[in-house]
Amino acid sequence: MALLSTVPSEAFAASVNDTLEDERRYVAMLYRHVDKLRDVATQRLARTKLDNASNPSARAERDASATMYRERIRQLEGIDERLCFGRLDMDDGERRYVGRIGLVDEDDQSSLLMDWRAPAARPYYLANAITREGVRRRRQLRMKGRTVTGLDDEILDVESAPPDSTTSLTNEAALMAALTAHRTGRMQDIVATIQAEQDEIIRADINGVLVVQGGPGTGKTAVALHRVAYLLYAHRERLEKRGALILGPNATFLRYISQVLPSLGETGALLCMVGDLYPGVVATGSEPDEVAEIKGRISMVQVMANAVYDRQETPPVKEVLFEGDRLRLTHKLTANAKRLARDTLRPHNEARPYFVREIIEALTNQVASLIGRHLLVDEDIKQIRFDLSRSPEVHRALHELWPILTPEQLLADLYASPERIEAATPDLAPAERELLRRDPSAPWTPGDVPLLDEAAELLGWDDRAERAREAAQWRADLEYAQGVLQILNYEEDEIDEEVLQATALIDASTLADRHDDDGYLSVSERAATDRTWAFGHIVVDEAQELSPMVWRLLMRRSPSRSMTVVGDVAQTSDPSGTTTWGDVFAPYVADRWRLTELTVNYRTPAEVMAVAADVLAAISPELKPPRSARTSGITPWHGQVESYARAVPEAVRAEYAAVGGGQVAVITPTELVHPLGDAIRDATTAEVVVGDGVSLGAGVVVLDVRQAKGLEFDSVLVVDPTGIVSESRRGLSDLYVALTRTTKRLGVLHRGDLPAVLRQLGERDTTDLTVEAAHDRADEGAR
Ligand SMILES: Nc1ncnc2c1ncn2[C@@H]1O[C@H](COP(=O)(O)OP(=O)(O)OP(=O)(O)O)[C@@H](O)[C@H]1O
Fold first, then answer.
1. Are residues 124 and 30 in the same domain?
2. Per the database record, which ranges form the UvrD-like helicase ATP-binding domain (predicted)?
3. Closest atom, ligand 1, to C-alpha of 571
């Protein structure tokens, strides 16, 4: 992809000025249109709220309408910023304004604004001087709030361009402005500057598994999110019914990307991490890598099957007391009942009635023999059978022989018992078995989620109705609370979700009968509460990190195998993750998956990428680094220091001053995150946040590599590279991730020798660092 400059001449700039007013008028008209649409939706919402629906179905209808109007208002608010960002002038004189949503003139149905996803808007991203696609001029509108502040024109038809105009092939001016802007802690959409190789992926066929491999900063996440917006537009009916799932690596990352889809006018996708994929379980626990690695192995499928098998017991003999008689279930009897139940090929809980029926039949025969069969008529036998099936002793025996199990119970019992672990894991070494042991009171971890899912399949566990009821209740609680807060005169956008939840506790029982129908749950809400939900499309980000067991779970949620999988096999940190895409998909789609690559790094400047390339070569000489879209003119540096506690806060102060209002990240081994965070807090006036769940807008954040996955900052200080490399089995990949989080500046601080792979860093005198920091402090004092 060529990235050429647009350098407007004076004559060209003058003509731009002439038209600026016209564009301002046009865009103002578009905003008036949007305001009108929003007013209509607001009025309809108000009217719907007044509707005193008298029966459950009318209430469900009212709530569904209210949800629809609220979504519409949210959509129109989301697209307000840079509503219109470009214009195409076609050869035949047609003008197409391109923006976030489509708007039409109500009188003549002509297009006022074309949705960026419409086929007719595509030349905006693809046309160049060689393949013009009928475009004569492409115009970028620069906006501040709702006002057009400038124009960038590209004349694609050289013949008709002003004689001294510069012809360029791409939107480089706008692209570079976007790439060098300060990071805010929230990912921005790229709708105005999507590049051709990205556009191909965004609009690729929805069917099948599409793998997008790309180095750091190549826009994989951005492309994946814009692809969801595109698919929601192009296949709205399918995705409205089945929903779209976006899976990301951690909560911080999900918050980081959470604004992108709303800014594209889409709110209908479900954002999750692996820990959320088993409804009803909050998998927030953590565990050592080696435990997670065992749980992620595909051999756990057999382990779970063994664990279930182990719960179907056949003791040598089982005695059951019934009305004073001691009945005997011999091994042969229970084994026979077990075989019959298993032969049904049903999951454990569903096969149980067959087992129970056999056992009750066997016990009925015994009781009949004890009384004397010749004395009994059919009615008596029926009565005995009935009494046995009501007997607590019989129930107890049946429970011991073939218990009804929930997935949580199966897994908790397994982890709690060395004997059960041994029985289920014949192929594990004793030390590995020991690693699986866990206290039943410990919280579930993301590694447990696919095992619970596997267990649910094996057990035939179905709690959809219960989950749906819970979700309906939750939604009802929130809406009630919202109502209360509005009575108290809060504006809707001042109400944060935690306050809502607290207020929701006021009167849960009133709510229960106000919303006794769950028919108005949105698709995402229904999908989130249903373990067996089949999504219309699944997007997986940082996909290299997923274990084989998680892939198995995801394939269950995508029977149509409609997936977009984005990742970089060079950035794999998780010991269960993958370094070869073929290995992931072969079991599910053989070789029927498509691989596409992104090759340009939009985040990391060339100076930093040159350093990271050596690390990449050390991971695997076959891996090629992406090409940086720009240089920064800033040399990445390293400094050897005696004490991190002293040097890091000074370096942070210097970097914070250097990025002037931007964001600085310290990326360091996990054990240093909190100690360094504390030391930095005392040394800077900036807001400093530390560790997971970071507030994304803070000036300084301190993270380990996993927490920094997928994020980016104006300046990155990597502290203790040797510690990062030795911290995990894939330490070099972690170092590669850490180095490539910066959009501008990179510094590396180390106590011992600099790792050889970082030899391209320019050496920096650390006394100089202290002097610079002191200088900044003096400056601040002067201000
Ligand atoms: N066409 C584009 N126009 C403007 N900005 C872009 C474009 N493509 C990518 N970017 C920006 O480049 C940065 C990196 O993008 P993104 O985070 O999607 O990359 P990634 O491939 O997912 O990176 P990583 O694998 O390192 O997490 C983001 O700030 C993104 O907005």
1. yes
2. 193-605
3. 25
**Cα–Cα distance between 629 and 721 in angstroms, integer?**
26
- 285 annotated ligand binder: no
CA distance 370 to 383: 15
Atom number of ligand 1 nearest to Cα 568: 25
Q: Residues 452, 592: one domain?
A: no
How many domains would you assign to the chain?
Answer: 4
pLDDT of residue 466: 66
Q: Nearest-CA neighbor of 84 among 172, 127, 23? A: 23
- State phi, psi for 517 to the nearest 5 degrees: -125, 130
Q: Is residue 431 part of a domain?
A: yes
Asked if residue 497 is part of any domain, the answer here is no
Considering the domain architecture, whether residues 45 and 162 belong to the same structural domain is answered as yes
Predicted pLDDT at 58: 82
Residue ID of nearest Cα to ligand 1 atom 16: 219
Average pLDDT, the chain: 85
Q: In testing the pocket of ligand 1, which one of 221, 225, 252, 544 has its CB within 8 Å of the most ligand atoms?
A: 221
Domain range spanning residue 248? 196-283+534-598
Global pTM reads 0.84
Looking at the predicted structure, is the pLDDT value of residue 160 above 90? no
Q: Give SS3 for 648.
A: helix
CA–centroid distance, 189 to ligand 1, in Å, is 9
- Based on the domain organization, do 626 and 757 belong to the same domain? yes
> 324 and 253: one domain?
no
431 and 306 in a single domain? The answer is yes
- Average the pLDDT over 560-573 and give the result: 90
Same domain, 634 and 705: yes
Q: Which of 446, 458, 119 is nearest to 289 (CA)?
A: 446
Report whether 567 belongs to an annotated binding site: no
**CATH number of the CATH domain containing 234:** 3.40.50.300
Residue 484 lies in a domain: no
Q: Is 214 annotated as a binding residue?
A: yes
Q: What is the distance between the alpha carbons of residues 215 and 616, in angstroms, rounded to a whole number? A: 10
- The more confident residue out of 690 and 494 is 690
Q: 79-107: per-residue pLDDT in tens?
A: 998 899 999 999 999 999 999 999 999 88
ipTM tops the 0.95 cut: yes
In the chain, the amino acid numbered 562 is S
Residue predicted with more confidence, 671 or 476: 671
Q: How far is the CA of 750 from the centre of ligand 1 (A)?
A: 29
89 within a domain of the structure (yes/no)? yes
For the CA of 192, the nearest atom of ligand 1: 3
Question: Which whole number is the average pLDDT over 218-245?
Answer: 93
| pLDDT score at 473 | 67
For range 478-501, the mean pLDDT? 50
Q: Are residues 28 and 130 in the same domain?
A: yes
Cα–Cα distance, 761 to 744 (Å, whole number): 15
